[in-house]
Amino acid sequence: MWDSAWPQGGQILLCYALPEFLYQGVGRALLGAIELHAVARGDTQLRLESTCTALRFYERRGFSNAGAPISAFGMTAQPMSKCLSDGAQPGTDASPA
């Protein structure tokens, strides 16, 4: 799910793969497609709120902490953002896995 109301770029509201598709590259492909779409729109940054479970997934793809963790609905989420104009190829990992 995508929200483009943020002036500097887009906000990823939801990005999930069904459990039977975990560790098969589906999440990476989804995130890569979102990043390519954002770059094509001219966005310079993406932001999201990661669950604890997905934190390392987003860090490996170039997202970094963007504030203190927040709690809502019995869950804790980490705000994160990624600059899309720093020369990194959209849709790829930030560092070798």
TrEMBL record:
Question: What's one GO MF term for it?
Answer: acyltransferase activity, transferring groups other than amino-acyl groups
In terms of Gene3D superfamilies, this protein maps to: 3.40.630.30
Q: Which residues are in the N-acetyltransferase domain? A: 1-85
For this protein, the record's Pfam families field holds: Acetyltransf_10 (PF13673)
Question: Do you know which InterPro entries this protein is assigned to?
Answer: Acyl_CoA_acyltransferase, GNAT_dom
Q: What is this protein called?
A: N-acetyltransferase domain-containing protein
